[in-house]
Amino acid sequence: MNTADHLKRGVRWSLGHGLPGGLMRMAARKGDFQGRMTTEAGRVSTQELLPLIEEIRAAGTMAKWRLGHITVDHEAVRETLSSNDVHAGFVFEEGTMLGRVGRWAKRDGLNPVEAPSLLAVEPPDHTRYRKLVTRVFTARAVEKLRVRTEEIAGELLAAIPADRPVDLVESYCAKLPVEVISEILGVPEKDRGLVLRLGGGAAPSLDMGLGWRDFRDVEDSLDEFDAWLGEHLGYLRKHPGDDLFSQLVRASDDGEQLTERELKATAGLVLAAGFETTVNLLGNGIRLLHEHPDQLQMLRDEPAGWANAVEEVLRYDPPVLLTGRQVSHETEIVGHPLKEAELVITVLAGANRDPKVFDEPNRFDIQRANARDHLSFSAGRHYCLGSALARMEGEVGLRAFYDRFGVVELLPGAERRQTRILRGWENLPAKLTVSDRSELPEVVRTAS
Fold this sequence. Notes:
By secondary structure, the protein is α+β, with helices and mostly antiparallel strands. The protein has one domain: CATH 1.10.630.10. 53% of the residues lie in helices and 10% in strands. The strands form four sheets. The chain has a five-stranded mixed beta sheet, with helices on both faces. Strands 4-12-9 form a three-stranded antiparallel beta sheet. Strands 6-7 form a two-stranded antiparallel ribbon. α1 packs across α2 and α8 packs across α10. The C terminus is likely disordered. It comes from Flexivirga alba. Keywords: Heme, Iron, Metal-binding, Monooxygenase, Oxidoreductase.
């Protein structure tokens, strides 16, 4: 990296993390809601954030913070995320010094929080990018993958030893979604460990206020991911298959107007998003069922309840804590006036605990009739395109795990991920006892 690139990286950190992080810490000391959320989220679990969430709820539907509003209200969150008067991503005002400096220092490679990432663009570009990948993630297409997902789960579970402590995240929760999305996208088996490592390294890029060393590590992971994508997509141009990556390459080369940068941004986000949410969903699910053995017994007695149980896991401990929007022009959300350029922070975990929508919202209940009303997959045009895949993998993955292991003893030493936005477990040490093999699904018995 030359001197100019080093300088640009320093500017990016200062504008995106150093300055905002300092302001958030200062604001937190003065009681600012978003400042407190930003500083506390990396240290505590979502459950431990509930007192702060309830403070925000008590302050009103659209509570004020330093740069705009923050909401934990279900209706307000849904309306904000669905509104055409707000946009994803943060844009510095045109003509300002910060705007000029930000554009000069802008990163050329992958960046999930900046255009042309699907997370940071709006129509018509968002519509164009999303159209190219949506068909692979429809409910019908995902259901066709169920049997293969069961086979992969069985193979992974059969390889987990039951006679010594294991880390469930490393041995199962992370591996299952990576194997599934890699098959969909055509990632070679030899590269899947690399993809998992790079995805984990890039995950903190969604957070604000990273320290310099963490920011540098994130950008190094993104650079490595960018280089791998370039090589892999180049290989697929010469050796195309029926996978999504090959389809994206063909669409780009056949006049769909995807530049190389747009192609890599779209492919990279679909790949990383295809396993990040599900890794957290599986780990959170195992932990919650360990803490609520009565709920687990219900599922052992009535396996038809697994689909709704996954919805309750998503509601109770969502894989994504919050997301932000910027107001495009003066508008109203649930009757509250918003000014142009204000930021609106929508706390998904707070909306999922709204007592106006969910009875006894702080109770984990796998039989909750409206569990699917959660907003863990966002809403509106940025609704998670991989939601059907995550739901299916969560259902298959958790059911197969508990069919395989009759006793799951979680051991001391579990650590949560330090990321603020993505919520899950870094590791889950456990000791496992295999069930009576006659009770296992055919795919598990075959894999064993």
